[in-house]
Amino acid sequence: MLFFASPWLAVQAGGGFGLIPGLGTPDVRGVVGVSWAPSFNPDDRDRDRDGIADAYDACVGDAEDVDGWQDEDGCPDIDNDGDGVEDLDDQCVDDPEDADGYRDGDGCPDSDNDLDTIPDMVDRCPDEAEVINGFMDQDGCPDADPENDSDNDGFDDEVDHCPYDAEDFDNTDDLDGCP
């Protein structure tokens, strides 16, 4: 009798009477056997043992690093955010460095380089801290010396192209000191 428990497992059983009569020969005998033969599917092979079958692994020879970043491709990711700073040295592995010349080696974006609480994306002087004094505090630039700024537009007279006419900050030539 042969019974298949699964595609790769079989159980056999057999029985019968003794072969010859005599001393030591059983009246009845039985045999039981188990066979196991797993099937091999080449698509299931995983040479780098990263849990991703070679058929689906983009980097068959390199194990996936399983760090929550593109873990399904089978490739190790040495720089998750693609900012050029390897994850081992990157203090912000999932946020790319902004590469603006300010602390670029740490791998983190720096939203306020001059630490004046005005975000660099709206700060007219992202590398010079604003002087919070009630005069044009929203522009992000240090204020001109009031004694050297006749029109009080924030530009010293010596660099102001129109020292007696205040800049109007209309997004057209706003750094020349002229309306």
Enumerate how many helices there are, as a single number. Answer: 0
Order of helices and strands: EEE
Unreliable parts: none
Q: State the end-to-end distance.
A: 102 Å
Tally of strands: 3
Indicate the percent of residues in helices. under 10%
Helix/strand class: mainly beta
Q: Reading side by side through the largest sheet, how are the strands ordered?
A: 1-2-3
Give the biggest sheet. Answer: 3 strands, antiparallel
Q: Averaged pLDDT, please?
A: 87
The radius of gyration computed from the alpha-carbon positions, rounded to a whole number of angstroms, is 39 Å
Protein topology:
Layout: E1 2-6, E2 9-17, E3 28-36
Antiparallel strand pairs: 1-2, 2-3
Question: What is this structure, in a nutshell?
Answer:
This protein has 179 residues and is mainly β. It contains no helices and 3 strands.
How would you sum up this structure, described in words?
Strand 1 (2-6) and strand 2 form a beta hairpin. Among the domains are: 2-36, no CATH class; 42-77, no CATH class; 84-110, no CATH class. 14% of the residues are buried. It has strands spanning 2-6, 9-17, 28-36. The protein has a three-stranded antiparallel beta sheet with strand order 1-2-3, with no helix packed on it. It contains no helices and three strands. The chain is mainly β and 179 residues long. The protein is 0% helix and 13% strand. The chain is rod-shaped, with a radius of gyration of 39 Å. The N and C termini lie far apart (102 Å).
